[in-house]
Amino acid sequence: MQNFEFYNPTRILFGKGMIARLDEQLSPEARVLVLYGGSSAERSGTLAEVRAALGSRTFREFGGIEANPTYETLMKAVVLVREEKLDFLLAVGGGSVMDGTKFVAAAVPYEGEPWDILVSKGEAAKKALPLGTVVTLPATGSEMNCLSVISRQSTGDKLLFSNPLVYPRFSVLDPMRTMSLPMKQVINGVVDSFVHVMEQYMTYPVDGMAQDRFSEGLLSSLVEIGPRIVATPDDYDLRSNLMWVATLALNGLIGAGVPHDWTTHMIGHEITAKYHIDHARTLATVFPALLKVRRNEKRAKLLQYAARVWNITDGTEDERIDAVIRKTEEFFESLGVPTRLSAYDIGAEGINDLVRQLEDHGMTHLGENGDVTLDVSRKILEAAA
């Protein structure tokens, strides 16, 4: 197992009615900005619950954060926080709202050009406002990590940053808040969570026994949850399990002491930036293709994944690897999520554009060993065609 440092300060309040406990998490003198996306937070009653829990505190609201949060929109929130002298941020929504709120938290006290926070991958930020979250869409794990991905409309960039200053102080996870979601968004959450786990698991063995078994348990849970939640969307226990699995998939625990490969996410970000395809759906096109192209480098873990998650133990090693890659594709497809770029009318010229974007953003040596060059990324995209 590799050396690691694990730190996670986020308090989780999980279950029905937990939004009311916001009152306990905030100082009576807190001046709060509530950030959210579209009208669904209002229609579902989540914002009403949040307002009631905030009580007599001074608070303002900022809506309109996009599904891929943009620098342009978020800078308007930064201006509002500064003008109103607000001192606590509360994200109400899914990963995009939480990611956007983290950027605002770091940008408000930043004295230079806030875009530099993203260009520096978060290292430029030395201070941040405190923040909390109320989760309405289980998918990204942003409620319990210090990661954020932000787009810039004027340049077409989509960049990730990480800084421990933007860990949420607390996150409220009430599965009832997910009941009004369109099923497409719920399924996107299943796929996003699945790939989050795989990018910390599908590398090479380092004898991380707890991490591997934990990851395999999360993957097996998602394989079970996916089709069942489509069949019985009002099942509270299924919603609860999906919500907690999504959080555990990216809160740092399963990735401690093991190598990571975030190639799928980096390529997926470029697809979303150019074509505005849902993030999870870009992952479903890239990840199986990556397994095909990198099957030799990931051979040992592919065989372990085949046996422990899909119970594939018969046949030669190559036959088992072929079978488990097919199983992964079939799982996504069974949920109505395409695994081919052609489903989005992305052809050879589009692949050329995506490779150029990867080069422009310095994504020239990806993977657990840094050997996913632009040529390898092109092969992955071609395998996804």
Automatic annotation (TrEMBL):
Keywords, ordered alphabetically: Oxidoreductase
Highest taxon of source: Bacteria
Lineage, broadest ranks: Bacteria, Pseudomonadati, Pseudomonadota, Alphaproteobacteria, Acetobacterales
Gene3D superfamilies in alphabetical order: 3.40.50.1970, Dehydroquinate synthase-like - alpha domain
Protein name: Iron-containing alcohol dehydrogenase
Boundaries of every Fe-containing alcohol dehydrogenase-like C-terminal domain copy: 187-356
Record domain Alcohol dehydrogenase iron-type/glycerol dehydrogenase GldA: where: 9-175
